[in-house]
Amino acid sequence: NDQLILQFNITLFGRNDRLLLVRDITRLHNLEQMRKDFVANVSHELRTPLTVIRGYLETLLDNADILPERWIRALQQMQQQSDRMENLVSDLLLLSRLETSDRQADLKPIYLQKILSNIISDAKALSGDRCHHIQLVCPEGATLLGHDRELHSAISNLIFNSVKYTPAAGQINVHWWEDEDGGHLSVMDDGIGIDPKHIPRLTERFYRADPSRSINTGGTGLGLAIVKHVLIRHNAHLEIQSELGKGSCFICHFPPTIIASENSPELVE
Ligand code: ADP
């Protein structure tokens, strides 16, 4: 389309002087739009063949007893890798949806204790025999106005990361509290921690503090980018504190405007 997009910057200098800078960012904006469309289309197109491949692999592995031994291992590897690709495609689609959808649409009261307990059960399954201790502190009526699935996905990413990057039997604390600044959700672990030099870049797509270790955890490298975008949609922001070898703390700060009353009639279960 032939829309012109201009960016205005006013700089004050001296007592009464102002400098108005007008920049034509049409090309930049169109390129960014093309990138978003491209990612959304490619992810969408990859999903169908992937689903078919995964279906066939599942059928083959369901009949593992009649397959030669040496095939089984190869098929299991293929299944593992196609699961990884499926996660990647889902994360890319979610990210492009977050970037393009309307900020204020579909806000619903979310009952936090319920959503956090569900995610923690899944995190315990992920932890398996590594037996992390996961503790939740959240007042019973805590409710916020938000997007159910998006918040679920952002909070899961934070809690699952704590499980992934904390050695066996580590401690993970999930805490929600409210004060005059709004609502705050912290996810704290005593895991491997992050070198401070990486912290400013962690929410970039595919940025990893320690690529070799992260690849082994099976993550997509998009988790914290998703968290960032979900928080932007809720006018919230992420604070990251970490010390290498000691542990990390990720805190989501939500504004008072989206904290809902205790007895909200329409809770998302
Ligand atoms: P990934 O799929 O690699 O986990 P994320 O975007 O979720 O991608 O996280 C980006 C990087 O941040 C990770 O690769 C890891 O290096 C670091 N990280 C995230 N959470 C933690 C944590 N709780 N403890 C230590 N490092 C973490």
UniProtKB/TrEMBL annotation:
Keywords assigned: ATP-binding, Cell membrane, Kinase, Membrane, Nucleotide-binding, Phosphate transport, Phosphoprotein, Transferase, Transmembrane, Transmembrane helix, Transport, Two-component regulatory system
Q: Cell membrane: is it a keyword of this entry?
A: yes
EC number(s) stated in the UniProt entry for this protein: 2.7.13.3
Q: Which GO terms describe its biological process?
A: cellular response to phosphate starvation; phosphate ion transport
The reaction(s) annotated as catalysed by this protein in its Swiss-Prot or TrEMBL entry are: ATP + protein L-histidine = ADP + protein N-phospho-L-histidine
Occurrences of domain Histidine kinase (ranges): 41-258
Compartments where located: Cell membrane
GO CC entries: plasma membrane
Q: Does the keyword Disulfide bond apply?
A: no
Q: What is its main location?
A: membrane
Q: Which GO terms describe its molecular function?
A: ATP binding; phosphoprotein phosphatase activity; phosphorelay sensor kinase activity
Q: What does this protein do?
A: Member of the two-component regulatory system PhoR/PhoB involved in the phosphate regulon genes expression. PhoR may function as a membrane-associated protein kinase that phosphorylates PhoB in response to environmental signals.
Q: What is this protein called?
A: Phosphate regulon sensor protein PhoR
Organism of origin is Spartinivicinus marinus
Source organism phylogeny: Bacteria, Pseudomonadati, Pseudomonadota, Gammaproteobacteria, Oceanospirillales
Shown segment, full-protein numbering: 173 to 441 of 441
